[in-house]
Amino acid sequence: MAGVAVSTTINGDAVEYLCQPDETLLEVLRDRLGLTGAKEGCGTGDCGACSVIVDGRLVCSCLVLGAEAEGRKVETIEGMAHGDQLHPLQQKFLEHAALQCGICTPGFLIAAKDLLAKNPSPTEEEIRFGLAGNLCRCTGYDKIVRAVQDAAEVMKGA
Amino acid sequence: MNFDPRFSGRQFASVGTRPIRPDGVDKVTGRARYGADFNMAGQLVGRILRSPHAHAVIKSIDTSKAEKLAGVKAVITAKDLPDLTDGDAAMYDILDNCMARKKALYDGHAVAAVAAIDARIARQALKLIEVEYEVLPHVTDVDEAAHHHAPLINDQVFTEGLEEKPAKPSNVTKRTQFGHGDVHAGFAKADFIVERSFKTEQTHQGYIEPHACVASVNPDGTADLWVCTQGHFVYRQHCAQLLGMEASKLRVTSSEIGGGFGGKTHVWAEPVALALSRKAGRPVKLVMTRDEVFRASGPTSATSIDVKIGASKDGTITAAEATLRYSCGPYAGSWAEIGAMTAFACYKLENVKTVGYEVLVNRPKTAAYRAPSAPMAAFAVESAVDELAHELGMDAVDFRIKNAAQEGTRASYGPVYGPIGIGPTLEAVKHHPHMKAPLKANQGRGMACGFWFNFGGQTCTDLNIGMDGSVSLAVGTVDVGGSRASLSLVAAEELGIDYSHVKAIVADTSSLGYNDMTDGSRGTFSSSMATISAARNAIKILRERAAQTWDIPVEDVHWEKGHAIAKGEKYGNLSPLSLKEIAAASGKTGGPIAGHSELVADGAGVSFATHICDVEVDPETGSTRVIRYTVVQDAGKAVHPTYVEGQYQGGAAQGIGWALNEEYIYGKDGRLQNAGFLDYRIPVCSDLPMIDTQILEIPNPNHPYGVRGVGETSIVPPLAAIANAVSNAVGVRMTHIPMSPPRILAALDAEREG
Amino acid sequence: MVEVTLWGSLSAVAGGKARHEIEAKDIRELFRKLAEQYPGIEPWIDRGIAVAIDGTIYRDTWSKELPEGAEIFLLPRLAGG
Amino acid sequence: MRYIRPLSIEDAVGELAKAVGPAAILAGGSDLLVRMKGGFIEPELIVDIKRIGGLSDVTETADGFRIGAAVPCAVLGENKALKQAWPGVVEAANLIGSKQVQGRCTITGNLCNASPAADSVPALVAAGAKAVVVGTSGKRTIAVESVPTGPGRTSLAKGEIVEAILLDKRPEHAGDAYLRFIPRTEMDIAVVSAGVNLTLDDHGAIKTARVALGASAPTVLLVEEAGQVLVGSKLDEATLERLAKICSGACRPIDDKRGTIEFRRKVAGVLAQRAAAIAYKRAGGK
């Protein structure tokens, strides 16, 4: 199997890697680049734990080939905070205890960031449907929804 | 150890507040390391070959082709994991489950494993392993398996607990019985009797993180294991025993854990990873796929339950009886036993009898799932209780209040209760605004009660005070949902310092004494007890150091609000010494200051909850939406109330999924049809409403702060609460969980057709 | 002297009797005396028996004292999630 | 295994045509990568068509809309003109998987995977959509319902690629709708589904109607009789009753992990009624 050489941008940094043609972007991020913030909960696009943003689109990185990232801009959880300044969503997830085990948290944060970028004032229903691609088994979603609502308020004020 | 665990009724400064958890930032930035996030230099990829058959004799396994594939470094079968269990039947079952010996007992049962330099080669190698099976008839349904004509899963099993040993083997491994009084006499006194049979399907804990570990065995026999687990000390014992190692030579580090709910309480693939590493001489990383998690980890039991309850006209229950059959997978378990114990635990009953049967089936080995076995029993009993209230013309809550257990009641499982919370949760529900909110067409309201035991167990904790006065707390209880925050609060409380100066970690198995796993809602209960004990031991040293500094007797030094205070008029000119000041001087007063604790935290105190639920059912499609949900539960004392609420909400959500859609679906071929998150339908965000909580605090007399376990009880009432709500919405009693749309529509159509 | 009640299945190995009067000061002594009287109980003790003392369940504290007149009930040792 | 990213449709067709082993077209990949992960398919060649000019665009033409084969469904939801003209098709496309999946999946892929439960297909069939197929021997335009021939099977020849889906320009008083039944609110495969597309005359009576059902037979069903029963009506109770009966009767579903035969039959009728009511309202009917 011939490797594919890829030049891409991840969290603003130029990155080059060689990957196998059938290797997913999730595998590349985790196993080649050491970016283990995106998690594999299912590998089939059903849990959202591996969510990243590619060229402004929210996707499951398990459903993208590493080779497809050529020339794209990829955003992962590792790029969400600015220096030591947490993103308002990260801060609100902490304040509301919107995580218990925390395995789904990076995916939820990325999906919520995408949601608020497209809809800065979502209703509860819009948040619930907007985050329906991310499974959480610990919280019952209550505190996650509240954290996103609160973060939306803060971000509008900023 | 002279630790006094009795409740002292103190006022709290830190406990009961809601600070940010210490592991929080790591988790929102993606830095926290879970099972699959760890790597070692030179590590190989391990993969497991699994049986496609539900029941088959393994006639031969030829691994030679796989071994010859370039890049393959080890191939193992059961021969590489010989039986070292020395008559320990439970451990033998775990071993056989990790790697099948003579027979494959379910679709997904491990039969061989490989370690290779990458995942692609490992996958290819699995395809080169030739297994010759002799396929046997199988049985997956709990009722069919209990039938005497059913294919036998283990011909050495003769039902235990019968008066005489049976002549023939059977799939029923054990009969258990609980109760008191005379149910025949009780039913004779009843004016109304409800008798019904119920079924619940098998569900999975559904943790988002698949099982994952990295195992590294050295040539000298020492080893390291990095693993996501609810109990790394338990995993160390299991692995050491199964691989013939000394426990102290195996260091197990628990990663952050991405959910367990009972499913990570014993080993599944970890001994396989260690055996591969031992054979290959290199570290091996083994991560289950989601498909493997569903097919080959430990879901809960499927059940079949018959309930009969009678009451007199005044609303007093005169007798209650249940027969409970629980599937165990292909290995013996005690799941029906727990169901039989919990079934009627909420009620004050003169005459009660429960009988449990453990049933072997060709499904994965059953594991604990949050208050294991209790939700199914509660579903059957609470459905019948609701129906009986209806027949009596009594309000469902009032009927339960009239018959609720209280202090002094003999529990249906035997002992007499101390102070308990079932009555207060029912009173709170009776007066909750949710109960009075109006309902629209096709909507229905239901409520139900739930009970769980809670445990404590062996616990070990180290508390070290740094020279700067900050405190590090090392615990052996895995943090599954925020317990490091709670334990830091407890340490701060006891020492009288600010929460921000405490940092809690989960120590590895070589750094701390044995600690039971996080199960039975014991995490915060038992580790807070050990933390209080460790803090008190540290305070004793702090007082000694202050006494030494002041050159006065230690008896005259008291500890208050983080300071040593010299008590007595003669010490009027001595200003208090802060913890920080004592710590700074510690190098000159006798060295480091620490508190250690090892104890058995028994006396966890039983737990009760009552839930209210509103649903809307589409009568044309059978689709059900939960539109409002309220949890009322006793916490003893809520150490970090936000995380207590989180436990209540999470348990309710899991129960909602179980009630409506989650189930293992097997084909006629005995293969699991829905081994993925697409068709094993756990609730998504848009499926649920906000889940309201009300925390009651009825102190546990056996804990210094009054803490009870809170993690499990919340999953007990939802199945019944939702079944009652659906039944009230559509006027048909639902007796089969999950109440999936096809089941509801079929029930409605049957009713419409009369 | 304490009165100890065994759950259904355990009483079957203890001569079919649910209630037993036993002279024991703590859980350890209780188990020892039961095993002396009914050797069939030993494997059950090895597998795990919990002791409820006035409704509070003890799984591991074998040194726990049995107060005079307390209600003592033996139960299977449970699993949790 | 090889991964290639041709820049022209001719190159893509040529590579596919000369491929020796199994070859796969990659647009959104939301189905292909799942099948690869499960070991159900091991392609020797993956042809990523996203860099081919025009395949990632939605264009409004004199005849209607042309939706390139590589356009993610999320993009359809953001196209106001398309949403205005074909709300049923767009809502069907935006029901596939999650937001994450919609950022990748395409209606062409949905069609070519040939699942009887594909969400966008009943809506496309009801809409009378056409597929532009390119192969070594040229280009042809066919009705979308002639692409799938059975579960996982299509009428496409080796080397053929569907490069776009065409939707007609909308006349006055037209409306479409798609409804599916799933046990959850999101993240499910349709247990059964119905797409309805209507045009009305000046008096508000139904002039033309197409009804399609999903997950009720080996391929998506165009139920012509159901369309006929609607024509001339103003969607009165009796017509809706007959519609449901015809749709339930037309179903040839199976029992599987997602639903029973009885359930699918019954709910197909219910959904057809409800989708017809929405389409009627969208067309301006009262």
From TrEMBL, chain A:
Keyword Phosphoprotein set for record: no
Record carries keyword Hydrolase: no
Entry keyword set: 2Fe-2S, Iron, Iron-sulfur, Metal-binding, Oxidoreductase
Pfam family, one: Fer2
Annotated 2Fe-2S ferredoxin-type domain residues: 4-80
Protein name: (2Fe-2S)-binding protein
Native source organism of the sequence: Mesorhizobium australafricanum
